[in-house]
Amino acid sequence: MAVVVTEEMIGVPSWDLYELSIPCTVFGKPQPDLADPWYDLRLCGTGERAPDGTAANTGLVLRTPYGLDDLVGADTVIVPSVPDACVDEGQPLPPELITALRRAYDAGARMVSLCTGAFALAEAGLLDGRRATAHWMHTAQLAERYPKVQVDASVLYVDDGDVLTSAGLTAGLDLCLHLVRRDLGAHVANQLARRMVVPAHRPGGQAQFIESSVPARDDEGLAPVLDWARARLDRPLTIADLAGRAAMSPRTFYRRLQAATGTTPLRWLLEQRLALARELLESTDLPVEKIGELSGLGTANNVRHHFLKHIGVSPSDYRRAFPTAP
């Protein structure tokens, strides 16, 4: 994991520290009990390199031993943000940074941006013809400056395979956990999220504009009924069932859940069932038919249909990618 630190960020506006700290927190601390080896995180600066042995390769430092040349050869390159002047005033990004991003992509790196980092990927031409996002406060500028980019201002993050972009702040954390989920599986991502005391999974299509990302645990209307539903995914569940459990009308329940999570009740149920199916594929050798029964996805054909549509691979291919855990 190579994280770009522009020279202007080392200094450092406090609001830029959050996006920079996200990949350092998710990928920089070894988690040998979850996966060994873990990620090899390197901060790659655009400024002068630090002498060998004088700076750690993780954590916030004034200078880093890694430079832009180190982007080439990385498996993943993350641009957390770019200086405000590059976004608001049109100040050019360092040409050596743009060249390094193109070289890294051409060498096969997976390219990722958090918040305004999308401006760097767009300037490098890596978002041309692709759907992408950034913080909603900057998406209009992104669309105006780079008309070849299909800017979606409403979503938390966009996974376009080898290029991924996210909105700002906590959406960047969602995307980084999504990368762990892609690389190491749902179980590892869920356990890491639990350690970080954050929601295990918010889908990229969830709206940026919601009242709360997750219902409060003391919300007597929603949290208990969602826990109740998660424990009964193997059963047929309808909006009327959930609303009745919450002692609300179906219309009121629909509105409350959408305001709290940015998604509909049926979509929420599908996401929970897919999450359970993924974990069962990773952690058991149960046949797909049984996993469909336990997760509520139905027949083996239905499980395959939903995996191909929403995850992009078949259940058998997914299982091969994440061998059964002990």
Automatic annotation (TrEMBL):
GO molecular function, one term: DNA-binding transcription factor activity
SUPFAM superfamilies in the record: Class I glutamine amidotransferase-like (SSF52317), Homeodomain-like (SSF46689)
UniProtKB keywords: Transcription, Transcription regulation
Keyword hit for Nucleus: no
InterPro entries: Class_I_gatase-like, DJ-1/PfpI, Homeodomain-like_sf, HTH_AraC, INH-QAR
Entry keyword Cell membrane: no
HTH araC/xylS-type domain span: 223-321
Name assigned to this protein: AraC family transcriptional regulator
Species, as recorded: Streptomyces poonensis
